[in-house]
Amino acid sequence: MKIGPKIALFYSLITMCAIIMVMSVFYLFSSRYINRLYESYLREKAFITAQKYWEKDEVDEQSYRLIQQKYDELLPQAREVLLNMDTLAHVKDTLGKYLNASQQERLFHGDGTPVTFKYKKELGAALYYPDNEGYFIVFVFSEKHLWQGDTGAYFATFGYSRCHQFYFIFFIGRVYSNRILTPLQHILKELKRIRANNLNVRLRSYGNKDELDQLIVSLNGMLDRIDTAFKSEKSFVSNASHELNNPLTAIQGECEIALLKERSTSEYMDSLERISVESKRISLLIKSLLFLSRQDKDILANTVEDVCLPRMLREQYAGRPRIRLSSTLREENDFIVRANPYLLGIALQNVVDNACKYSDKDVEISLFEKEGRKVVEIRDQGIGIPQEEVELIFQSFYRASNTRSYKGQGIGLSLSLKIISTYGGQMGIHSEEGHFTTVSITFPLSLAEE
Q: Is 226 within 8 Å of 242 (Cβ atoms)?
């Protein structure tokens, strides 16, 4: 069953259950009230009956006519039984037929109020009536169905009408639920249209500012991310194929040239040297690609330890005079990072090598604290990066337009970013073309603690 009919059915059932509960409570209290009311009528009928038969000689004619009128109007369908306790020997048997011992006790020793009882399908009232003519007992009976028939018919009619109301409520609920779910049906229809070649399609918002609108916004955001990732993946595959094809083509061409004729030992050595260089290039590229394809949890599976970053940088670049290291930290141990030292070294090495490659001047590495975080800043005074390309520089195989004359594969920064982000760090670039480039690597306090 679809959501719309489910909502309509659930709404209808809840409404009908509420109505039935209310009517059940109403029936319970009304039936009790009617019982008490009818019993009061029976008791009054017993009094009027006794007055009709034994008060005629004791009241005036007008009062007796009132008694007779009440007698005729009150429960005209009731039947009565009169017992004279002075003349009937079987009075006790008759009383035992209608009343139990407790009821008989209340009848004779009570406050004079008629005793009500049930006998088969009838309701009755018994009155002990002492008079100057003797001692009498008045029984008044009325068939139960005479008053319950109307109530039963009413509730039968109520139940029949509830069936019609259920279908009506279900219909209204179905219409309303379909109206609510229209945006959802639109979402499903649009999602079915989306394919790999039209990931730029976005869902239309209805402006209702409800949960479905929030769902549409979330789905559009997800599609943006998927579209970006898909484009990056296509670019990655294309660039990877290109980068792998170049050295393979060079190796194949070198082999073909070498095999055209017999050559001297030195010529063969030169060919093998060129093949070796291209092979190492392929090997390094494949290792980088394999590393980029690894999940973060796989990288974190490598042994991690406390790395003193100032000490590691000083040892790593001690023999390179172009690199100047400075720190505003009080002690070296103020900058400790939990990471794999080998991988962390690769990440920093890629950034520093880029700074040295694209600048003829000194490269500055600064360590300092900013807003409670530990920062490594690598700054060069080289060719810089065009402003419109700064956001693209971390993409795999992407190389800025002003780096064509420099060797490289465009994979170093993306590799560094993956390693740094895996250990909870962040990388940012600020650059001005033709003047400088600054790469900032920030570690949170949980990873670089004082």
A: no
